[in-house]
Design goal:
single chain; 344 residues; alpha/beta; Alpha-Beta Plaits; TIM Barrel; 2 domains; 8-stranded parallel beta barrel; 4-stranded antiparallel sheet; 10 helices; 14 strands; 32% helix; elongated
Length: 344
């Protein structure tokens, strides 16, 4: 249920209503805009009649929210959420996701393989204009015999790359027990295989770091938003949704990129939306086309895999761009973004 307060409601009146709601056992999410304040009630509101609030002088309207997700709903939070990544660190260039003015580019290799590899990749994506450096320190792989990543050592190498380039870093968390290594990671990625690992989502919710939450292989939009709700309900509202392609009946590409998810999510949620064209298609020559179509659809950012020597990559070799291809794509994407008055 949401309660919209009148513009003339004072802070004292607002605080009094919030206190009253909390006394009745409800959690209260407060969203303040320029012209209105919205109180979102969290908990079992089935026995509460919205009309009960309409008699209050400060209440404009009260209505139920039909969606099962609350904090992620635009009804609870009408204005877009803007999330800062990498702020407050000397030598690091922070960026914002969801401001409607820029398209954030998260780029780097699928996995961190060694120091030379990640440093070369970091320099290359920085030169081309990427905003955030990505790289997998822990790798969920279908086969137990495939390269599983360097673990904590990989995070140390990402930190070294951040120190040199000034790029904030993003890497995937697979287990809550590994959170202790993520202190200097600027954005935590929750991968498709873990998007409904609810215990992990709860632990990430206890942090205040930005979280890049990927849609599951066969996950619905509602399931993605409910997973975001787990993180937000546990205290962390810095959630970025990531569409990375879903499994369909056809197998000509690795997955099927659901570009329609972008306008849908923007309508029904206030959270930023990032697309991952690399994992969606799994084919190098298709990444650029999908990236540009994602920008045209209104994506707030893109996650693109870049490797200085893709043929020798230890994971996902077929979808990673060379630095030259990435630089060429960046120039092309800037033109697409400029049509909408946005920048890369």
């Amino acid at each position: 249920m949401i309660i919209t307060l009148k513009k003339e409601a004072t802070q004292a009146q607002t605080d009094g209503l919030i206190a009253s709601l909390k006394e009745k056992g409800f959690g209260v999410h407060v969203s303040k805009g320029e012209s209105m304040t919205i109180l979102g009630l969290l908990g079992d509101t089935s026995k509460v009649d919205p009309d009960d609030f309409l008699g209050m002088d400060i209440v404009e309207k009260a209505e139920r929210v039909s969606a099962p997700y609350k904090m992620a709903s635009r009804a609870f939070h009408p204005h877009n959420t803007v999330i800062e990544v990498g702020g407050g660190q000397a030598g690091v260039t922070p960026c914002t996701i969801g401001d409607g003015k820029s398209v954030v580019i998260i780029a780097g290799p699928c996995s961190v393989e060694n120091e030379e590899q990640i440093m070369d990749a970091a320099r290359a994506v920085k030169k081309a204009g990427a905003t955030i450096l990505r790289g997998g320190a822990y790798k969920p792989r279908t086969s137990p015999y495939s390269f599983q990543g360097l673990g904590a050592e990989g995070i140390k190498l990402l930190e070294k790359a951040k120190a040199e380039t000034g790029l904030p870093i993003c890497t995937e968390l697979m287990s809550a027990s590994e959170l202790k290594y993520f202190e200097n990671v600027d954005m935590i990625q929750i991968g498709a295989r873990n998007f409904q690992n609810f215990d992990l989502l709860k632990e990430v919710g206890k942090t205040h770091k930005p979280v890049l939450l990927k849609r599951g292989l066969s996950g619905t939009i509602q399931e993605l938003l409910m997973s975001a709700e787990y993180i937000m309900a546990n205290g962390n509202e810095n959630v970025i949704l990531c569409e990375r392609g879903i499994r369909t009946f056809d197998g000509y590409t690795r997955n099927c990129l659901d570009v329609s998810a972008v306008p849908y999510l923007h309508k029904y949620t206030h959270l930023p939306v990032v697309l991952d064209p690399s994992h969606a298609c799994g084919i190098r020559w298709m990444v650029g086309t999908l990236a540009c179509s994602s920008i045209a659809a209104g994506a707030d950012g893109l996650e693109i895999e870049v490797h200085c020597n893709p043929e020798k990559a230890l994971s996902d070799a077929s979808q990673q761009l060379t630095p030259a291809l990435f630089e060429e794509l960046m120039d092309k994407m800037r033109k697409y973004a400029a049509v909408e008055g946005r920048t890369l």
